[in-house]
Request: fold
Amino acid sequence: MSRASLEKNPAEVASMFDGIARRYDLTNDLISLGQDRRWRRATVAAVGAGPGEKVLDLAAGTGTSSEPFADAGAVVVPSDFSLGMLQVGKERSADLPFVAGDATRLPFADAAFDAVTISFGLRNVVDTPAALAEMLRVVRPGGRVVICEFSHPTWAPLRAAYLEMFLRGLPSVAGAVTREKGSYEYLAESIRAWPDQETLGRMLLAAGWSRVGYRNLSGGIVALHRATRPA
Reply:
């Protein structure tokens, strides 16, 4: 299987995730030393979806990030453009209404959701501003977006160790589990190329979101951005 490039051709990126779908969740748990669970709990808390609220979970993959919303009584729609991920997700969680969708052209009506969230997926979208605008479109006025994404560690020694040790070793470690080293070479490259916390905040404002804020998790290895659609 060929790996995707930083041009992020949607077909190439989807194909890459198709190839690692069955070992994706296990690999994430291993390479993050279990921290991915804490990051996802923080995301669920930031969304704060109550019973009956409608939540769109983009780049949902196999639905791991969607299940907590359903458990809380929200109406969650997991969406992803990798059919391989969706197939694995449907096998594991048949009760979730998985929908194939491109974040830059969402197959949903205007103002259809109370909240939209995306975890570790915005970085893989070919056109970030278009995706942020589409999220705004499908959320009702007063609704919110929560983005959980790899970011830039704020403490210089941690940043150096993260860039020089973890990201360099990531493809080999993940490749040993998935047998797809190239996919995780792309992952490491896309993390290095991703904008910092303040830049993503400005992108949200430019897309029309308001009340933009963020908090760092794990020293800024991950950042959690939250914003509101103007009423």
Summary: The first helix runs from residue 10 to 20.
